[in-house]
Amino acid sequence: MIEQYRVPSQTLVIEEEIKHSRFISLLFHCPDAEVMKQMLAQAKIDYPGASHYCYAFVAGMPSNTIDMGSSDDGEPAGSAGRPMLATLQGAQLGEIGALVVRYFGGTKLGVGGLVRAYSSGIKQGLNNLSTQVKFIRQAAKLKCQYSQLADVEHLIQKYHGVIVDRRFTEAVELDFELALSHRDHFILELAAMSQGCLIPEFAV
Any residues with CB less than 8 A from the CB of 145 and at least 6 apart, and which? Predict the structure, then answer.
């Protein structure tokens, strides 16, 4: 099972002119299909009157073949969206979207030319795109004393965990999420720190 993967940490724009047509390629973080819709709507505002707004996205881990999609937006079938999607899949990045805006310049490129043109900016962008690691996390609970809270929170952060909720009663109850790949090390260090008193409960 993949426990972590890289995702875009920025939006990148590449502009090219190919046989008098203007191609504007955008690469961006796309965790779900709704973000793709929002980016498409924004592109139509930022780049009004374009001939085509073609897109592709992989929402999820790189191997995800369900939460993905593409559109040729009026270009010949298979000449834009699918080549764009194939380029994204080849990059082994997760949660990534691509949108290519085309202003037609009067010269037809043919299907082969369109495939190259719609992939060109994305390939260039992928070489320069900043990314960050996304960890697949598991939910967990932990009860500790008030005097232990600072050390526990520091340990959770050390192992790329995220605290979801804190409940303050006679003790402190923490709901948090921890990267799967760090769970065993976290449990060992927590036990050493608390002399075996603190034992987290991980969701199945």
Answer: 171, 172
CA distances in angstroms from 149 to 71, 166, 170, listed in the order given: 50, 10, 13
* pTM of the complete model: 0.74
Burial of 131-156, coded b for 16+ CB within 10 Å and e otherwise, reads beebbebbebebbbeeebeeebbebb
Task: Check if the beta carbon of residue 74 is closer than 8 Å to that of residue 109.
Answer: no
Which tokens is 68 given? 């993905």
E strands present in the chain = 4-8, 12-18, 21-29, 52-58, 68-71, 96-103, 131-135, 137-144, 162-168, 172-179, 201-202
AA identity, residue 108 = K
User: Of 51, 118, 50, which is closest to residue 79 (Cα–Cα)?
Assistant: 118
**How far apart (Å, rounded) are the C-alpha atoms in residues 40 and 46?**
10
DSSP E strands, 51-196: 52-58, 68-71, 96-103, 131-135, 137-144, 162-168, 172-179
Q: Residues 170-186: pLDDT tens digits?
A: 999 999 998 877 889 99
- The string of pLDDT tens digits covering residues 48-66 is 999 999 999 999 889 888 8
Could you tell me the maximum CA-CA distance found in the chain, to the nearest angstrom? Answer: 74
Closest C-alpha to 57, from 78, 75, 35, 74 = 35
Helix crossing, 110-128 with 81-90: angle to 10°? Answer: 30
Which of 37, 35, 34, 28 minimizes the C-alpha distance to 10?
A: 28
